[in-house]
Amino acid sequence: MTQTTHIGKKINELRKRKKITLKIISQQTGLSISFLSQLEHGKTSATLESLKKISESLGVNPSYFFSETNEKTRSAITRNIVDTTNLTENRFIYKDLSGGMKDPAFIPNLIILDPGANRGNNFSHKGQEFLYVLEGTLTIEVDDYVDVLQPYDCVFLDSSKPHYWYNKTDKPIKFLCISSTD
Prior knowledge:
Blueprint: H1 3-17, H2 22-29, H3 33-40, H4 48-58, H5 85-90, E1 92-96, E2 107-113, E3 128-135, E4 138-142, E5 145-149, E6 154-158, E7 163-166, E8 173-180
Antiparallel strand pairs: 1-2, 2-8, 3-6, 3-8, 4-5, 4-7
C-alpha cells in the first residue's frame, strides 16, 4: 500500500467512525469535496498544509495519518526510517517514530522537507510542539514572528498559536517534531 493510499484510507475510516460527512470537512477546511473524495480513494496526494486542516477538522494530530495501526504497548525500536521515495511524491516525508505505541503521551516525528516545500498559511491546533533541526535551515513562523533555525537549533512552541515551517533553501531539511495534543 502506498503512503497516499494509506493516508486516504485512514482519513476515510476516521471520518466514518466519527460520522462526519465530506461536506462538513470541506466547509471546515476550505478543501473541495472532490479533492477530499479523491484523497480518500488514493487518487491524489495531500500537502502537509491540507493534512493539517483535515486533522484539525477530525480532531487528531497530523501524525495520526502516518502511524501504523497496531496495538504495541511496549518499547519499540524503529530502524531505517527514511524512505526517500515519498520525498519526490509528496515533497515531504512525515515519519511517525512512536513505534505504534498505543495512546502515546507525545508523538515524535521525523520530517524531511524538500527544497521550497510547505509554502502556505499559518496553522494552529491544540497542544505543544518541540522542533529540533538535524540538517538544513528551517524557517519557522510563530504568531507572525519569523526565525531561522540551523542544525542543532530547537524551538518549543504552543501549537494553539498560528505557526508554520518552511524550507526556503535549495537543500532538503531534516528535523524532529515532538508534539502533544493535550
